[in-house]
Amino acid sequence: MLLDINEIKEYLPQRYPFLLVDRVLEMELGKSIVAYKNVTNNEPFFEGHFPENPIMPGVLIIEAIAQAAGILGFKTQEKKPKDGFLYYFVGADDLRLRRPVVPGDQLILKAEVITNRRGIYKFQGTAFVGDELAASMTIMCAERKVNVD
User: Fold this and answer.
1) Could you check whether the bond before residue 89 is cis, i.e. omega within 30 degrees of 0?
2) pLDDT tens sequence across 27-85
3) Largest CA distance in the chain
4) Of 19, 23, 62, which is closest to residue 43 (Cα–Cα)?
5) Pairing with 19, which of 7, 39, 73, 120 sits 20 to 30 Å away (CA)?
6) How many domains does the chain divide into?
7) Residues spanned by the domain of 69
8) Is the pTM of this model over 0.85?
9) Domain containing 16 — which CATH number?
């Protein structure tokens, strides 16, 4: 299942500069997702991290994986932010950042459902640049109902 940026915006409430998923390449509802983020030199965080040696902050790599996982959760449950649902990132375990992510890289984001109990998802998440593992972690996200104006 392929989603472009316009479809992604239906399932994620984040917007520039915090929308960190550009395209979904594969998705098996209730099981897994593969998406990507094109890392460009004009990302606002590179102005300060670090101007002479730009590196994508690790917390944003974690966020990108969590956003991909959120898309999978929303699509699996057939829910959208506009309907009053959000997925909150609530934790990470076994986190490892293994390779710097720099301008020009395409960050491949993968998330696989480990468990889903009462709206609490646990995912195995990874990020790759080419065939190189950039990050790995277990993340948890909680589905919440929120008021929509």
Assistant:
1) no
2) 999 999 999 999 999 999 999 999 999 999 999 999 999 999 999 999 999 999 999 99
3) 46
4) 19
5) 120
6) 1
7) 5-145
8) yes
9) 3.10.129.10
